[in-house]
Amino acid sequence: MLACLLRVVLAPLTRQRSYGNVPQPHAVLYYSQRATNGGLLIAESTGVSDTAQGYSETPGIWTTEQVEAWKPIVNAVHAKGGIFICQICHAGRVSNEGFQPNGQAPISCTDKPLTPQVRSNGIDVAQFSTPRRLATDEIPSVVNDFRLAARNAIEAGFDGVEIHGAHGYLVDQFMKDKVNDRTDQYGGSLENRCRFALEVVEAVVHEIGADRVGFRISPFSNYSEAGDSNPEALALYMAKSLSNYGILYCHAVEPRMVTIGEKKECPHSLLPMRKAFNGTFIVAGGYDRKDGNQAVSNGYTDLVAYGRLFLANPDLPRRFELDAPLNKYNRETFYILDPVVGYTDYPFLETTE
Q1: 276 neighbors 239 (Cβ within 8 angstroms)
Q2: For the CA atoms of 37, 21, 335, 82, what is the dihedral angle to 10 degrees?
Q3: What is the DSSP letter of 310?
Q4: For 212-232, what is the HEC assignment?
Q5: E strand intervals along the chain
Q6: What is the dihedral of CA 54, 126, 340, 286, to 10 degrees?
Q7: What are the backbone dihedrals phi and psi of residue 273, each rounded to the nearest 5 degrees, phi first?
Q8: Angle, CA 224 vertex, CA 101 and CA 47 arms, to 5°
Q9: Which of 274, 164, 266 has its CA nearest to residue 220?
Q10: Short-list 273, 211, 195, 271, CA closest to 240
Q11: Strands 249-253, 257-259: parallel, antiparallel or unpaired by DSSP?
C-alpha cells in the first residue's frame, strides 16, 4: 500500500509552461507550494519520446537535459516531505505533424483520424493530423520508450511513475474498441486490445520495480473519441491484470467524467474495479471535500485526487482540514505561458485571512 499520510492527492495537470518540452525553474515553486509532508503529488503528463507530444510546451523525460531539469523540482518536493510521481505518457493520435519530429504523422494503433476539437480552455480548436498505424514489429520500440522514461524518472529522483492509460492517449487508444481496429495480436478481443498496455506495465515493472508503478485509467470516458462498447469488462480485466503485476496503485477516473471538465450523473461505479484491484486505489473526477471524505470513509477508495481545486489552492490539504473557504480557479489561465499568473500566484490561507 502507498504510505501516504494524507488522503488528498494532486492530480496530474497539464500546465503548458515547460518551454521547448523542458521543465522550467518556475515549476520548482509550483510543485513545492503544493507539497506537504506525506502528501502525494502526481506530476503533469510527461512525454516518453520525441513522438509523444500532443500539446505545446509540455515536459518530456527522454533527454538528459530534461532529466537534469526535473531534478531541482523533485528535490524541492522531497524537501517538504512530499511523495512525487512522474506521469509518463504518449499522446498517440491526439497530436499533429507540428508536434512531431520532421513533420511526420503521429503514431497510433489506428489510421482513423480524430475530428477537430475545442480545447479544454473552451476557446482554441485543436487540429489533428491523420495518424500512422503502427506496424506490429514497431510496437516493442514504443514499449521500450516507456521503459526508458521510467528509468529516467527514477534518475531524476521521482519516487515512481504513473503510466497514463487514460483520456484517449496512446495506451487508451489501444484499449478502447471505438478506436482500435487492428487485426493483429494487439486488436480484436479485449485481451488483445489490452496487450500493449500490459506490455508497457511489464516493461516498466521490470525496469524500476512494481512498488514504484501506478496506472491511470478512464474506462468509462470518451475523451478524444476513445470510447468502449463494454467499459465494465475493460475496467475489471485491467484491474485484475494490474493486480497480477503487483503494482503500487491504480488511479481511476470517475465514470461521471464523460468528457474533460464535464460531470454527469451516470449509473456506473468504480466499486467493482476497486474490489478487483489489490493495491492502493485512487479516484479522480469532480470531487469536493464532502464527497471525497465520504468516498474514503465508505471504503470506495483509499485516496482522492484533486485537479482544479488543488491548482487554485496550493494549501488544499490544510484548507480541507480546517474546512476553510477555497480560492476560485480561473480557467482562462490554466494553459497560458506565464510562469507566475494562474500558476504560482494563487494565495495561501494565511494571506487571504
Answers
A1: yes
A2: 0
A3: H
A4: HEEEEECCCCCHHHCCCCCHH
A5: 8-10, 40-42, 46-47, 83-89, 107-108, 117-118, 125-126, 132-133, 160-165, 213-217, 249-253, 257-259, 262-263, 280-284, 303-306
A6: -90
A7: -65, -45
A8: 35
A9: 266
A10: 273
A11: unpaired
Chain segment 83-109, per-residue pLDDT in tens:
999 999 999 999 999 999 999 999 999
208 in Cβ contact with 172 (< 8 Å): no
Q: Which residue shows C-alpha cell 476497486?
A: 274
Whole-number pLDDT of residue 316 = 98
Torsion of CA 71, 148, 198, 55, to 10 degrees: 70
CA distance 180 to 341: 40
C-alpha to C-alpha distance for 106 and 52, rounded to whole angstroms? 8
pLDDT digits (tens, 9 = 90+) for 199-213: 999 999 999 999 999
Written as nine digits, the cell of 271 is 466499486
Half-sphere exposure in the Cβ direction for 7 (13 Å, CA): 20
Which are the catalytic amino acids? 169
CA distance 52 to 57: 12
Report pLDDT digits (tens) over 248-299.
Answer: 999 999 998 655 556 666 667 999 999 999 999 999 999 999 999 999 999 9
Query: Coil, helix or strand for 296?
Result: helix
Nine cell digits for residue 232: 465494465
